[in-house]
Amino acid sequence: MDFDESSTTKIVTREFLAIVLAGFGNELLPLTTNHGDEPCPKALLPIANKPMLEYPLAWLEQSGITDVLLVCPTPQRSAISNYIQSEVSSTYPSLRIDLQTFEESQDMASGTCSILRHFSSRIQSDFIILPCDFVPPPSLTLSQLLNKFRTESTYDGAIATACFYEVSKPDKGTVTEDWGMLPTNLPIVFDERSGTLLHIDTPDDVDNNNKEFELRMSLLSQYPRTKLSANFRDSHVYVCRRTVLDALQAKHHFESLKEEFIPWLCKPQYQRTRREKYGNILSPVTNNLSQALALKHSTLHLPARKQRLRRSAVGSDDDEHLRSVVPSPVEQDDEEATEPSLRVGLIAHRASSGFASRANNLHAYLELNRFFLGQTTYVLPSDAETRSLIDPKAQISSDSMVGRSTRVEERASIKRSVIGKHCVIGKMAKVVGCVLLDHCVVADGAKLDGCILGAYTKVGAKAELSRCVTQPGYEVGEGETARNEKLETSDWTARDTSESQESDEESDDASEDSSE
Amino acid sequence: MAPGPMLDVHPPAGPPNGEPSTGQQKSQKAMTKAERRELQEKQRAAKAAKAAANGAPGKPSGKPKDQGAPQGGAAKPKPSRASDAQARPTLPAATRATEKAKAGQASMAVDTAAKGTQARGLLIFSHFGLPKPVSAAKGDIHPAIARLALQFSTFKITGANARCIATLTAFKTIIQDYVTPPNHTLSRHLMTYLSPQISHLVAARPMSVTMGNAIRQLKLDISGTDFDLPEQDAKDALCRKIDTYIRERIIIADQVIQETASNKIKDGDVILTYARSSVVEKVLLEAHASGRNFSVIVVDSRPMLEGKRLVAVLSEAGIQCTYLLLPALGAVMSEVSTVFVGAHSIHTNGAVYSRAGTALVAMMAKRHSVPVVVCCETYKFSESIQLDSFTKNELGQSLSAYSLLPSD
Which of A23, A193, B236, B322 could form a disulfide with B297 if both were Cys (CB 3.0 to 4.6 A apart)? Predict the structure, then answer.
């Protein structure tokens, strides 16, 4: 006989599949342009010296999700795969990450809807969509979002839950207009008491009618006390039922989740025609056993008003609901089923509860780094080897972060900055309020103020850069000055010479690798 | 029955430990009511601080201890109170006291009071503890059970019948998803698989008697499963037994109760009911459907306010309803012809265990010689006896004023 103790078979069905979408990061150009042949994936750009992807992954692990489907463009596959195998498997052992690629080019990025349609065969359960660039606040756990979804989808047939976070307006002086426009917030209409998302004003709506804000009367009759706010930004975290994918398949022309599909998904809950058209898809008759009988007996449950009125009227035909094909214990109760509400839940995270942001543009990227600087204090590294690289006469302020194996020479001054790994900061260099990615070299006497330097950037001696963003591998000549610019190498043949050209602001056609 | 222990609601006015050294030693009469109350709070707080200090020496240094503390607390300015990581939202009495008190002293003492009682603010309920937050699912909790636990802890599924049906339905899902591991038999392993799921439900909200009885029956059925049956047949048989249990012992029992109890309602009756019982609701709807003409008085109580939903359901059906809260009961009892109440369970000695406040309704009815009818299915009978009050209660969520509006 076989007394095998190790037979702990996984009996529990998977509840959620997390889908993390990693894109090209076109808003973060030039940081995400290719460094020669190697791509710099947006998902691996460091925030406070941790790759951006680590934040959503940590968030997932904290809430107990184990299955992750990571979707990235094909060129980035090897970089991300290396990262996952080397770092993630050791720090987050419970996550099982399935990396899948999606064919798209940087210029013609396909929409998030097409990606989801492409992978819908891999998604069998309820799923969570996350962007790779969302940094959640510590006070908001993914479990809160999931619990809200779990409660509501069982209780009244909700179909999805979204998360919006409040942004405070930045001060005028800190925003560098040349880095790109700040993203504008989409106004949303939501019901605060029940946490329901009712309406998102899309750019299409604005195009159709930019003078008036159009709302359905049925929305207001169902939810008379709503709030309209333009302070919230979409975190792009959506927890959805599996049936939402079926609805997505039905809508071929939608490209963007955030701007087209989710606003559309908010409509069936109050719009009668859409409910009739899509109610079957969003809340179909299933084999799963529902809690309908229990809810009927629950003392705090009230069926929807329409349903109660309908019950008193004889001879009306009922819509299906959380109905089961499996016969319930009592046959005749099937007719008195309640209609699903098809609600989209909302968690509106206030700025006062914690800082949250998506790092999808340069301003937010810098702001997030600054935020994390405020959280920690700098201490000199403890291991002797790294310690020896930092000169005792260098001045590193306590609100900075210096990565591993970075050499800081004497009299260098680092304030309020994040320095990546393997960098070299020369003598008398002044780095204030900057973010330096890995492998940067700042020569002696250079002054950097409020810049973001891509990986492998070389800044020549005595150069002065103020509020610039450089492409990976860019070389700033000696004594050059630049303010408020995006420095890109427009011509790769110029890499052979030590001088490189500064590009104008109008043309963004960088990183065309001429030597294939 | 011997009287219960004396409940010490107000701390004795003995030698107060936390007496501020600079406080005016007015006589009790000279102080205003607010100041007297404030003094009481301080005394209670100091006493709690002493008890807490003895019980938990490892607390952070922000907590004052014993007699020397309030003097030391005077030196600490108000910001230290705000920065104390354990500071809980203060009680209204406490905030009143802080406004009137001298700088840091009384605020530290009151803060200790808030931490010391750490509950609803009533000493009489302090042995209940706080409602537990639902912990993240440990181990392999089936998603259906995780969702059900959330429904319980957020009070979406409430009521003895509803919880039992919900639990059994979730167990049906689990049984269907269950796969017997090799070298195990279903009849023995399934129970060990279900136990952590049941514990998770109990952690969300204490188990009801109905759930307990149903689970006991389920365990009996599982252990009685035929060894030779193929797995799917065994699972189907169990699901059928669960269905039969629900149908026979709840649904059909309810129908029998409906018929019997609605015969006790005559034309022109005024029926009084308390909170919302699923059985009583069915009885009233059945009586109305069979053509009797009566009106209903619904008595409701906080924090759950279930009676509101009962009024909504009954009015939609066309029954004339009156709604009032429990304190107003005496005003209407003289007009009532019958009282119908539901039950959570019936103890072995015949005592009825029901929503908190039912005893009050029953006693008031007896005083006015109004007959009380208890509608209870037999599967709710429990083998326990309760000798004292305030032993098995749960504390509900405290509602804000805005949630008093009717919600769907």
Answer: B322
Find the domain containing B235 and state its range: 143-255
Taking 3-state DSSP, the helix, strand and coil percentages for chain A, each rounded to the nearest 5, stand at 30, 20, 50
In B238-297, the residues whose Cβ lies within 8 Å of chain A are: 243-244, 246-247, 250-251, 275-278
* CA distances from residue B117 to B34, B101, B107, B371 in whole angstroms, order as listed: 20, 20, 15, 41
- C-beta atoms of B173 and A288 within 8 A: yes
Provide, as residue numbers in chain B, all residues whose Cβ is less than 8 Å from the Cβ of A312: 316-318
Question: Is residue B194 assigned to a domain?
Answer: yes
Query: Whole domain around residue A166: which residue ranges?
Result: 9-291+338-362
- The count of structural domains within chain A is 2
Tell me, yes or no, if the pTM score tops 0.80: no
Calpha distance A465→A484 (Å, rounded)? 8
Distance CA A22, CA A43 (A): 6
Domain boundary among B205, B227, B255: B255
The answer to whether the CB atoms of A7 and B316 lie below 8 A apart is no
- Model ipTM value: 0.76
CATH at residue B293: 3.40.50.10470
Q: Is residue B214 part of a domain?
A: yes
Q: How far is CA B295 from the centre of its chain?
A: 29
Cβ atoms of B399 and B303 closer than 8 Å:
yes
Together in a domain, B222 and B191: yes
Chain A, chain B: beta-carbon pairs less than 8 Å apart: 136
Name chain A contacts of B278, Cβ cutoff 8 Å. Answer: 296-299
> Which of A12, A193, A305 is nearest residue B140 as measured by Cβ atoms?
A12
Per residue in A38-92, pLDDT tens?
778 888 888 888 888 989 999 998 888 888 999 988 888 888 888 888 887 788 8
A153: which chain B residues are within 8 Å (Cβ-Cβ)? Answer: 147
- Do B36 and B108 lie in one domain? The reply is yes
Which residues of chain A have a CB within 8 Å of the CB of B313? Answer: 302, 308
Q: Is the peptide bond before A30 cis (omega within 30 degrees of 0)?
A: yes
Q: Are A447 and A434 in contact (CB under 8 A)?
A: no
Q: What is the pLDDT of residues A263-284, one digit of tens each?
A: 898 988 888 888 888 888 888 7
Lookup result for tokens 């989710």: A262
Q: Is residue B269 part of a domain?
A: yes
Same domain, B119 and B34: yes
Number of H helices, E strands in chain A: 14, 31
**How far does the CA of residue B67 sit from the closest CA of chain A (Å)?**
38
Are B267 and B383 in the same domain? yes
Check CB contact under 8 Å for A155 and B312. Answer: no
Q: Which residue of B has its CA nearest to A292?
A: B166
